[in-house]
Amino acid sequence: MAAVRKWLVAVAIAASAGASAAPAMAQDIFVDAHGVVHISSARAAALRYCNWIAREFYPEVENDHNRDSYYRACMAAHGQLE
């Protein structure tokens, strides 16, 4: 199980190294004229998945900073801003 976790982290970090902040990312979330926040389905799915990954697979990390790093790497791997 530890090998699978290390592999997932390695993939997420490698993907985040190749991801860049594209202008299209800015359109994943916006507020309309009535103040309603709209989030794309891709961003919503990435938020659910990355929060789940950080919570379930890395509960034993020594501090929240490391968990945040895993979350950010996961979001970058999905092409989303943190």
Brief characterization of the structure:
The protein has helices at 2-18, 41-56, 64-77; strands at residues 29-31, 37-39. By secondary structure, the chain is mainly alpha-helical.
Q: How would you describe the overall organization of this protein?
A:
This protein is mostly helical and 82 residues long. The protein has a domain at 40-82. The chain is built from 3 helices and 2 strands, in the order αββαα. The chain has a two-stranded antiparallel ribbon. The model is unreliable at 18-25 (pLDDT under 50).
Topology (SSEs and partners):
Layout: H1 2-18, E1 29-31, E2 37-39, H2 41-56, H3 64-77
Antiparallel strand pairs: 1-2
Helix pairs in contact: 1-3, 2-3
The Rg value, from CA coordinates, equals: 14 Å
The count of DSSP E runs of length 2 or more, i.e. the number of strands, is 2
Strand order of the largest sheet: 1-2
**Element string (H = helix, E = strand):** HEEHH
Shape: elongated
How much of the sequence lies in strands comes to 5-15%
Overall pLDDT confidence = 74
Low-confidence stretches: 18-25
Q: Structural class per helix/strand content?
A: mainly alpha
How would a crystallographer describe the biggest sheet?
2 strands, antiparallel
- Please report the number of helical segments: 3
- Report the helical percentage: 55-70%
* Amino- and carboxy-terminal Cα gap: 27 Å
